[in-house]
Input
Amino acid sequence: MDPALLHARAALDWLLELGADEAIGEDPVNRYDLAARAPAPAPAAPAAPPMSAPAVATGPADPVATARALAREARDLAALAAAMEGFDCELRPGARSFVFADGTAGAPLMVVGEAPGRDEDIQGKPFVGAAGQLLDKMLAAIGRDRTDPDPARAVYISNVLPWRPPGNRRPETPEIDRWRPFLQRHIELAAPRVVLIMGNSPAIALLNRGGITQIRGQWTEAVGRPALPSFHPSYLLRNPPAKREAWADLLSLHARLRALP
Output
């Protein structure tokens, strides 16, 4: 193959890894060239502090503390969604859609995943790509359906992060810490009877521990509710033999839901 074509293909693959998976405009724009041609703004003269009030140095606000305050103030899911969408996050400029939840709020079962991927970012809903399709099949196997409002079958679905990380990478620890207060408040307001924790990131967010292969299938508690850690559907797509353990988790979840008063 022509070396120039190989170089172009490698450049495209690199852009895809960064999350640039579609064209936005008709013509390419060289942002570096625009920055070079733009005139430098004149420095503004610093304002002198008043003589009676000496200036006090203040550091940046703690994003986790800010998240706790915003989450605590949310009185319903609509208010929580508005607070989360307006919350400052480095992931927001690189994402297309704010992804909050899907399914029926108040359902006995709430599923918590990791973060939106490409398909979720496009549609603005969690778990709609290949992993979401597998999740729907898994839930159907135990009589659950995100589109059914009947409490006997209803499901509510969300993620730790509402914005897509670049390149569909896993959420990083500072991101999980920043969004944990919102997730905890989300569970409180959605009021499920049981929480299904799917993947390592939600396990870290809700249980303060990772290692999903060691803790899956073991009932615990999250935000005051029975919680079951299990594999994320995307992991099952990459590792089909793990579906056997995932099926055991589903049977345990089904039994717990049926035993609810």
